[in-house]
Design goal:
Layout lengths: L7 H25 L9 H11 L10 H20 L4 H17 L6 H12 L4 H24 L3 H9 L13
Helix pairs in contact: 1-2, 1-3, 3-4, 4-6, 5-6, 6-7
Length: 174
C-alpha cells in the first residue's frame, strides 16, 4: 500500500469500509446459521461499537483486514461442522489463516485454532489434518517461490523463517 501512503483520507475510508464489511459479514453469519433467536442487526452494531473503541481504527492498519479474513475462517469452520466431507473448506481455513500470518506474524497462532477446531468438531481423520496443514503451507510456498524468482529468497528466510521462535525461553536461531 506504498502508493497510498500519502493519502490518509483514502486509507481511513478503506479501513472503515473493511470494518463495515466485517460487521455485515458477522451479522450475516449469525442470522444465516440461526445463532441469535431472531434476525436483527444487533451483532453487527455491537461489532462496530467494539472495534470503534480501539485507537487502531483511527488509521489504516492490517488488523481490519485480518479481522475480515478471520471472520471468513469462522464461516468456513461453521460449514465444516455442518457438512461431513467438506475438504475444500478445511483447505480454505488453513489458507486464510496462513495469509493472515503472512500479513501479521502473531496471527499465525490462529493456525492452532484450525487444528483445535478440527479436533473438537470432527472425529480424527488424518486426511483432514493434512489438508489443513497443506492449506497453511501453500501461501508460504507461493510467497517463497515469488521471492526466489526475484532473487530475494534470503529476505523471505530472514522475514519469515528465522523469526519463528517456539518458546520465549529458547534463543533465536542464527
Amino acid at each position: 500500500i506504498e502508493p497510498l501512503h500519502n493519502k490518509p483520507l483514502l486509507l481511513l475510508c478503506l479501513s472503515y469500509l473493511i470494518t463495515f464489511v466485517s460487521a455485515y459479514y458477522w451479522n450475516y453469519l449469525l442470522n444465516e446459521y440461526r445463532i441469535m433467536p431472531s434476525q436483527n442487526y444487533l451483532p453487527g452494531v455491537c461489532f462496530l461499537l467494539l472495534t470503534a473503541m480501539f485507537q487502531g481504527t483511527a488509521w489504516f492498519t492490517i488488523m481490519p483486514l485480518a479481522t475480515l479474513l478471520l471472520t471468513l475462517v469462522v464461516h468456513k469452520l461453521i460449514r465444516v461442522y455442518r457438512n461431513e466431507k467438506n475438504f475444500g473448506d478445511i483447505l480454505d481455513m488453513g489458507f486464510l489463516v496462513s495469509i493472515t500470518g503472512l500479513l501479521y506474524e502473531p496471527l499465525l497462532l490462529f493456525s492452532l485454532f484450525t487444528f483445535f477446531s478440527l479436533a473438537i468438531l470432527r472425529p480424527f481423520v488424518f486426511r483432514d489434518w493434512m489438508i489443513g496443514l497443506m492449506g497453511i503451507l501453500i501461501p508460504y510456498l507461493l510467497t517463497g517461490t515469488w521471492f526466489f524468482w526475484q532473487n530475494r529468497f534470503d529476505d523471505f528466510i530472514a522475514c519469515n523463517i528465522s523469526n519463528i521462535q517456539f518458546s520465549p525461553f529458547l534463543p533465536r536461531m542464527p
